[in-house]
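Deliverable D5.2: sample structural annotation.
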Amino acid sequence: MKNKYLVDIEEDILKVVKKSKRALTRDEIIEKTRNRVSKKYDEEVSFSKESLIAINNIIDDYIASYDFLEVGKGYKYIKNTSFHKGTFNLLRNGNGVVTEDTSYIKDGEVISQKEDYIVRSEYFNGAHDGDFVLVDVTGDGKNASIKIYKILDNKIDTIYGEVYRDRNYGYYVKPVNKKYKDLFVSLDSEMVLSNKIVEGSRVKAKVNHTDTDSADYYRVTSVEKLKHKDEPGVDIFWEALKYGMDNDFSDDSWRQVDWTPAEVLPSDRIGRSDFTDMETFTIDGVNTKDMDDAISCCRLNNGNFMLRVHIADVSHYISKNSPLDIDAYRKSTSTYAGNKVIPMLPHELSNGICSLNPNVDRLAVTCSMEIDNKGNVCNYTIVNSVINSDLKMSYDKVNDILKNNNIDPEYKEFTKTLNLMNQLALILRKKRIKEGSIEFGVGDKEEVYDEDGMMIGARERVNDYAENLIEEFMVIANETVDRHLSRYGYPCLHRVHGSPNEEKVNDLIKLLNIVGFSFNMLDANDCVSNPKYMQQLANYVASTGNLSDILSSRLIRSMAKAKYSPNNIGHYGLGKDYYCHFTSPIRRYPDLVIHRILKETTLGEKHGKKTTVSDLLEIGNHTSKKERDAADVERAVFDKNCASYLQDYVGEEFVGSVIEMSDKGLRIRLDNFMEGNVRFKDKNTYFDDYTYTFSDGDESYHFGDRLILEVLENSDVLPLHHSEEDREDYEKYLREHLDKIDNRNTYFKIKGRVEEDNKVLKK
């Protein structure tokens, strides 16, 4: 057979099996494919021995990927059966869901389809969270029978957990990840002795599923002792492990680190633009060690600005599917939990050769943009480069220059450039807001630590001139790169952000009216339909005096979650039609993907198989989920640190505001930004979600109420939820219920009201 017949043979084979209503044997597939090819080329085709080998390999690939399922003596296309393949995830109610993701391109647009199949716990068939499974769906609607038929890819190979000992079963590991709580992980006594493991030791265990009747029984094959549960400094990382965010890298990754050069080699410079003599610097936090971005800026003869955003060329050192890439993809993001960082890349790289440290040559990808005085990008180039940063600047010192003209001597020679950059940043910000980018008027909260690393409070993170300058430059670079890839029809992993939840926006407007602020300019539908209208609501919320912070937080929660996708729906919050993440490849995997796409297309480098839309769909789903996991870790660690801090103040009083309420009680934010809950006895409580009022039978509480609160011992909260009979033997009761105490939270008792602060300023 001539080579031309092999060009589309894979597609021909797929179409043959797709069209068949019955199962086809391998010989039938080959014969029908031959007939199809003969008809397509209008000539009789015969397959050579080499062609038959290639065709059989393709059929094997389809069978291995479960696109072709064995039915009787033949094979059927999976979509012509009752089976579906997808990722299995546990739900909070004890059931599970299998999510099937498919995508295709139609008229140049990526069409993605997602189908969820709810599986009751008795039909898991040994599947665990994250497994790739084959699910059998028979019937329709409520009468459908949905069962997991087979586990295609068991994802459990490593368990983090705490060692326990049982009189009957010996030593075992209790997984820290609650999604694996039903597993029994047996630990050999010989491993216990050789590794000096005791009860309470926390370990990393490699595991295998054993050939037993129980799908939940695993045996440890090797174990690494971490720290004991009572040793200091383990809580933050342990909290992260509950959400699947680990601090580990494989042995192969560490070998790759050892092979990676510590400085730019002469061979690395070939074909790159040399910007090492150009004035360039970084602006970061004082303690930042992983610097992704550096900037250069000047005026052109025509009066326009020339802005260069230099981004660390991580992709040069971490090739696709290398050990470090596999680990980076698994993590997908660096996690910032408390005062600790769980990095996506080892510090040896993220703080070393990949970081744009001052006074050393570094490889970068540079986006150079000519920008006019209205903030429009007139021309741009994207090139591989070599840079040498002149100085690592801090946000604080740059702000001191831009706000107070208080110049650190080390920064003196760069003052003119900083003022020019600030001028450009203000132009870009003005244009961005005019085009519909939303400013919420409230910053993120950040924890404050003492010299020993103990949290001593929290505060709002304020973005000043320097922070806004970097933000604007990164936004315009991200937008420019996305526009470039989209303009030429290249694949792109966009950072997309859908419209807000109209019901939540409507609830916020209703709440504004309940607490005395009449917002009658726009309804929820208006706000959702246009970011410029949403900005009007955000501005109004920012003007509500002592309620502005907590109302702004609720407005932010009404927004859709941003995610990564090859299907571009634009970015609602930024008011951008084109936007991706390009500027932080040290700490975000999607940025690394964008760099690789640029190299496969614009920059003309060859790095194996090119990235496809299907690749991007899978990468987008995975990295979006890991981003949410990282956010969950950060929230959980913040709550835990709050609880730890406030337990030193049991019995003392603080002032705080009601920021949330439900039928369970009140959520409180103290004036020092710490948060906790007020719980009430189960009887005689009532929450009216129409008036947003909570009553305990004696008192009524409203959103925004200012209260005097006493910090409780966590164990004292449990008796509030149970009967006197349960609490007769209090010590026994505590022993039996101790595991139900949420040590990641703080509980308060209401002592009174701050009446003068409860007066709402009417609009």
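Annotation notes: Residues 613-646 form the longest helix (34 residues). The chain has 18 helices and 33 strands.
The annotation will be released with the project's public dataset once the embargo ends.
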